[in-house]
Specification:
GO terms for molecular function: calcium ion binding; gluconolactonase activity. This is SMP-30/gluconolactonase/LRE family protein. Keywords: Metal-binding, Zinc. Belongs to the SMP-30/CGR1 family. The protein has a single domain, classed as Neuraminidase, CATH 2.120.10. Helices cover 2% and strands 52% of the residues. The protein has a 5-stranded mixed β-sheet with strand order 1-22-21-20-19, with no helix packed on it. It has a 4-stranded antiparallel β-sheet with strand order 2-25-24-23, with no helix packed on it. A hairpin with a 2-residue loop joins strand 15 and strand 16. The longest helix has 6 residues. It is globular and about 45 Å long. The mean pLDDT is 97.
Length: 290
């Protein structure tokens, strides 16, 4: 197994760092603190700006042909720009105030796929939704506990429900957006943590942030083999994304949610954002299309 190192990128500490994203048009790294209700943008000069959203904010995707992002919020998706702030709501995913958005990404056709999860029980109460243009959101995968880690590669979609410790592989039709479950592509041993955020490189290998696993792990979805690990000096690694001018850098978020004061004292780097330079190239972000 190949080992890679990460370095401190931006100190928080953030309670629940997530939503890592490289914004090409701004040459900026972005992430959120879900429980801190805030979004952060770090420009190429190293200036970090905090945007207080005022509610849970879990993910962001860029909108094609605009200077805007779509944000996953408490139970809705809304428009946002750094200049104008929060804009109009695009979709309500679920009227249940006990649910919030979690991870989400756009597919190659420009549809937004976004999951919900329960604030307390975290067991089969959420769902994975698909939002296409201005149409109402459609449930694609029901009864999800903690929706995470969406990537697409050719006619395949990979998705994980953190609570299952598995990455599922689906047949994916780019034209219709239809998916069909095929198999469990990666099964993660409990001692390596649980699968959280996920990204993919140009070779089709999955990079998974593993909660409780002290790192981002590189897996082969074809045979389920573990290929490498980026070591992170915090146990709860929550999200990872390729970016940078050459797409060979990775931003990694961590969390200190549910940690006791004693654990935080033992693992003081928890909740910071980390960065790694890699000998692999990531795939560019997909944009939402109206």
């Amino acid at each position: 197994m190949e080992m890679y190192q990460s370095t401190l990128f931006s100190p928080g500490p953030f309670e629940l760092g997530e939503g890592a994203f490289w914004w090409p048009e701004r040459s900026a790294w972005c992430w959120v603190d879900i429980l801190g209700h805030s979004l952060y943008i770090m420009d190429s000069k190293g200036h970090r700006t905090q945007y207080h959203i005022g509610e849970y904010v879990s993910m962001m995707v860029p909108v094609q042909g605009s200077n805007e992002l779509l944000l996953g919020l408490h139970g809705r998706v809304a428009r946002f720009s750094p200049e104008q702030g929060l804009g109009r709501t695009l979709a309500i995913l679920d009227g249940n105030p006990s649910l919030r958005c979690n991870d989400g990404k756009c597919d190659p056709a420009g549809r937004l796929w976004i999951g919900t999860m329960h604030l307390i029980t975290q067991r089969d109460n959420g769902a994975l939704y698909c939002l296409e243009h201005n149409r109402p959101p459609v449930i694609k995968v029901p009864q999800v506990s903690i929706s995470n880690g969406l990537v697409w590669h050719g006619d395949r979609m990979y998705f994980n429900d953190t609570a299952t410790n598995m990455v599922k592989e689906y047949a994916y039709d780019v034209n219709s957006g239809e998916i069909r479950f095929l198999r469990n592509a990666v099964v993660i041993p409990a001692e390596l943590g649980c699968p959280d955020g996920m990204t993919i490189d140009t070779e089709g290998m999955l990079w998974i942030a593993q909660w409780g696993g002290w790192g981002v792990y590189r897996w082969n979805p074809v045979n389920g083999e573990l290929l490498g690990k980026i070591e992170v000096p915090a146990p709860h690694v929550s999200c990872c994304v390729f970016g940078g001018p050459d797409m060979q850098e990775m931003l990694i978020t961590t969390a200190r949610e549910h940690m006791t004061p004693k654990q935080i004292e033992a693992y003081p780097m928890s909740g910071n954002v980390f960065h790694a330079k890699l000998p692999f190239k990531g795939l560019p972000v997909n944009y939402f299309r109206y």
